[in-house]
Design a protein that fits this description.
Layout lengths: L4 E4 L5 H12 L3 E6 L3 H13 L4 E5 L5 H15 L4 E4 L14 H29 L2 E6 L2 H5 L5 H21 L4 E8 L12 H10 L12 H7 L11 E4 L7
Parallel strand pairs: 1-2, 1-4, 2-3, 4-5, 5-6, 6-7
Helix pairs in contact: 1-2, 1-8, 3-4, 4-6
The chain binds NADPH dihydro-nicotinamide-adenine-dinucleotide phosphate.
NADPH dihydro-nicotinamide-adenine-dinucleotide phosphate binds next to helix 1, strand 2 and helix 4.
Length: about 250
């Protein structure tokens, strides 16, 4: 994938950081997108460069259409093409449904679903121009199976699956392949807040009896972002230690 260009949203930390490092190790030039963690994003860029790769950090709130368009323009100005988009940025605002506030619903739908709509729409013209593209969106097991306290997040992530399948049908003729990765619990800042009872229960029901590592997600994403994934369309790949086995 030498000289391919990727935008990885939310790459300053966690799963996005691991995907950025993995893609760079496959020879891809990587945009390390972030919202507010500038120092962490620059550290990821430094890690990639130290390993001989090419990367740049771009701040953009992926819920903001103007910011997304500016990020895409900046990428095209610097590197001339976009081959890969990883819709990874996401948040949670957990609450039991009967207590869920309007803003908790809206914030999660925007960050976990609308962001993918905005980023996908912004990169498609550049991908169509090359008759080539790979889009991988990071959903969640919570979207496939539901999860107590996560109606907003589950709706957004299942929405991301439907969105990806529908877009996949529209763009395959242009050489653009769209797929989804749905992780279970992966050890990042993201799951720091989950209550102890839920942690204990999850560790009991996951056949592997442990949470996943970011390094167990990133290579699968890189494969789906590679030319080799040419006949895998609209697939949802769970990476969950055997938790759901849909
Ligand atoms: P982290 O909380 O560790 O990292 C989130 C990343 O998203 C950060 O880089 C953050 O940027 C970025 N981000 C959040 N909102 C925005 C925004 N509006 N604009 C741009 N960037 C944004 O999360 P994870 O790495 O754990 O999760 C990554 C993805 O994987 C998410 O979509 C999540 O839903 C999904 N996932 C995670 C699971 C887990 O167990 N960890 C399980 C299933 C799915 P900044 O640092 O600047 O704030």
């Amino acid at each position: 994938m030498k000289d391919h260009v990727a935008i990885v949203t939310g790459a300053s930390r966690g799963i996005g950081r691991a995907i950025a490092l993995e893609l760079a190790s496959w020879g891809v030039k990587v945009v390390v997108n972030y919202q507010s963690s500038a120092a962490k994003a620059e550290t990821v860029v430094g890690e990639i460069q130290a390993a001989g790769g090419t990367a740049m950090a771009i701040q953009a709130d992926v819920t903001d259409q103007q910011a997304v368009e500016t990020m895409v323009t900046q990428t095209l100005t610097e590197w001339g093409a976009i081959h890969i988009l990883i819709n990874n940025a996401g948040i949670t605002r957990d609450n039991l449904f009967q207590r869920l506030k309007d803003e908790e619903w809206d914030d999660v739908i925007k960050a976990d679903l609308t962001s993918a709509f905005l980023c996908t729409q912004a990169v498609l013209p550049a991908m169509r121009a090359n008759s080539y593209g790979r889009i991988v969106s990071i959903a969640s097991l919570a979207g496939l199976a539901g999860n107590v306290g996560q109606t907003n997040y589950a709706a957004a992530k299942m929405g991301l699956v439907g969105f990806s399948k529908a877009v996949a049908r529209e763009v395959t003729a242009d050489g653009i392949v769209v797929n989804v990765v749905a992780p279970g619990y992966i050890d990042t800042d993201f799951i720091d807040h989950i209550p102890q009872w839920l942690r204990t229960w999850a560790l009991d029901v996951i056949p592997l009896k442990r949470f996943g590592k970011v390094e167990e997600v990133a290579p699968a994403v890189a494969f789906l972002a590679s030319p080799a994934a040419s006949y895998i369309i609209g697939h949802v790949l769970t990476i969950d230690g055997g938790w759901v086995m849909p």
